[in-house]
């Protein structure tokens, strides 16, 4: 296997999971700032509070304090040899409520300084414009993207970033894991949390997110034609549990709706045929004008990125099964041929090669794997070392399969493993679910020095990058 000479090796984080400083320098609250911590030991997910209660711990408020420590972190990324660093901009650092007309200069200057620090080491920024960072005010007062005015707020925000950083950022992503908007009312994407929403409202809000993305693509290309603006999905690789035709058909239908739907709209620029029947069968009404259709066609993305952590199996009687598995976005049925992580996610390196081929054969645009990794418990030894051979093995097997996919003919241009530095979990707010090459001294209750240290995987990944994937 051989990786292209200009392959973008790096790592990925998100502002709400690493920056902290949630109310510093004019920043307003995002929806993530209202997420109280959950716990794996008690089996609880994160609690979303309409009002922040000081008696509880909200992990995003301090996170790993990368807001104040980004220079130290970037120096460590540079030591590993990063070519690219995927980060997100906190929307509420730029527009604290989301509906202002004038941006917050302190927030803009912060990212100016951060990009300058990256460029000092020759690291290319890959910027996610909205990574579960919708301003809380927009959700509370406008029902998020259910209100078409939010499209304009997002366009103003994105345009502000494009104009400010047109000479510092080349690679952009409009929304993180946009297909989260197809499940659970899509609070993280759509900003729906005030009440119970119908499925029609959920998909109408998601439609407005598509329009916002398209407007951003068009605006970005006008400001700098060299911009590369992509989409980002949580790809959930699915296999039929059996060769029973009902299981195969169910898998196809779920794959279409949860994986292909958003990609089809953002890459091809139109709603796919199969959603028409889904909308009819579920009495879903979405207002889509001719002007909307033209906008979606004009605002298609330049490349496709996705997260890949696991695969799952699908059965026709999925809801009634007692052999369910955990996972990102949603679970499925367990696969007896796969091992699982400490959090019950099924580890499937070959599935990544399968997925890369599946996506590329459908869209034939450049691809990036912008999240991939192993959430695990790490033990600090008496000498301070962290011997995470399990993480090294996970990455090694996945990188081998990426190389195989490239040899298959897939145009894969970059790889940014998730949580290159330990950060808080999006699902539970825990720190004990660690992904990073860099250890951060922080526990699930927010205690610790926040000191950074190198795991064994840090040195291994450094060698991988230096050898362009040849030394595994």
From TrEMBL:
TM annotation in the entry: none
Record Gene3D superfamilies: Glycosidases
Coiled coil start-end: none
InterPro entries according to UniProt: GH, GH_1_N_CS, Glyco_hydro_1
Keyword Hydrolase carried by entry: yes
Keyword terms, alphabetized: Glycosidase, Hydrolase
PROSITE patterns per UniProt: GLYCOSYL_HYDROL_F1_2
Family, as annotated: Belongs to the glycosyl hydrolase 1 family.
PANTHER family: 6-PHOSPHO-BETA-GLUCOSIDASE ASCB-RELATED, GLYCOSYL HYDROLASE
Protein name: 6-phospho-beta-glucosidase
The organism of origin for this protein: Candidatus Enterococcus willemsii
